[in-house]
Known about the structure:
The structure holds two protein chains of two kinds.
Chain A: H1 8-16, H2 21-31, H3 35-53, H4 63-75, H5 100-105, E1 116-117, E2 122-127, E3 135-141, E4 150-151, E5 156-162, E6 165-167, E7 170-172, E8 177-180, E9 185-186, E10 189-190, E11 196-202, H6 216-225
Antiparallel strand pairs in A: 1-2, 2-3, 3-11, 4-9, 5-8, 5-11, 6-7, 6-10
Helix pairs in contact in A: 1-3
Chain B: H1 7-12, H2 16-19, H3 37-48, H4 51-71, H5 79-96, H6 107-126, H7 135-138, H8 157-166, H9 169-180, H10 185-192, H11 196-212
Helix pairs in contact in B: 3-4, 4-5, 4-6, 5-6, 9-11, 10-11
The structure holds zinc ion.
Amino acid sequence: MTNFHPDTKWLSEYAAGTLSDSQALCVSTHFAYCQKCKQEASELTQLGAMVFNTQTNDNESAPDLLQNVLSHINKDPGQADVAPPQNNSQPVTGHTDLPTVIKTLIPEGTDNLSWKKIGPQISIAKLSNLGDTRSVALHKLQPGSTVSDHDHHGLEITVVLDGSFSDQDGKYFPGDFLVRKAGEVHSPCTSNDEECLCLTVCDAPVKFTGFFTRLLNPLVAYQHKH
Amino acid sequence: MTLGVNPDENQSEFGTARTQTPSGYSMHPDHEKPFDEWAETIEHIAVNQDREAFTRLFNHFCPKIKAYGMALKSHHTSPEMADELVQDVMIKVWQKAKYFNSDKARASTWIFAIARNCRIDYLRKLKRISSPLTADDLWPVFEEPDPVSVMDLARSSAQIEQVVNTLPAEQITVLREVYIEGKTHAEVAKQTGLPLGTVKSRLRLAMDRLRSALPA
Ligand SMILES: [Zn+2]
């Protein structure tokens, strides 16, 4: 039911490894729902490998590097994998059917994150920054939320993880990958029966901005006047 | 041949599962599977921990990895960094050889993906950036094989060379800038004066060539 996908630019920058970490997180999350994009990214990686493999080189040998590597693997010949650390400290509750990369990022589970209510029906859990300055967060929209028009001030990516929401452009389901640019105005609303969970990454390194956050600012300001 | 098989089982059985299959190390009928010498080598290393085979693999890929390290357009790029990259990548190849599946991937695709991830992690280390996710978390290379997982289009080096030789120079240049020099499309567009859409369309054309030149 995934209808909104990253385009070739996104997928090739992912394959080349030039996307920022937080943007790669969004694309990688999308793959958990979309075999088609995963396949395209794989083919784009093969394209890169093709160039990698045909690099002209003088075939210089590097006996010292080889010796270093051999002595390293002689010390540690096991080819063993360290088992991923099991996080048993807290029971994982909340939205549990999530992509592996999201589970790795939040091993404690969605319920154990520190959620901040930023509106009557919207909460945000800001996640730690990855290797870049973009803000990474989860947003939770309660069933039946409607939020007023808002526009965007930077590039914002939203990936639906659970539930659905809609705006004038369509209805969005798990896996849908949405890129919003500055100046675009949206008034999202959720369905009446289920909570919607989204991953959001936005350019501005400003606290608590994001797809569903900024839209609330006029609303919050309005409420404060009364 | 190892579709859906837990790599750990292969290792504990010391390779019996691999060497007894019809497409195992010593047998590779051309009509069944085009020969990828280095794929066979990696599978052999996974099973036998053969250091001589590993040395051959090292000598073949070392210059490519080093060139990949040196090509990065960054002020962090140096011969020392490229040497570190070669060592990081080849140690990982040794450690993770059991995850390689020649039914799914060409050796060069697998090693390119490892080199890409190592270069990302190495740059982070240089920039003292800490992140809860490693490059391998964000760009998974060592996933458990599953029946619907993706597969390489080309299987033989000859097929790949054929494609490369027929690509126009302008497409090769864009591919090199994007994949090897590590530039974003926007950076390529800015430096070459090409419209952003042209960068994307050259990649697309090269992709179409790769797809159409290879048997389905
Ligand atoms: Zn997709």
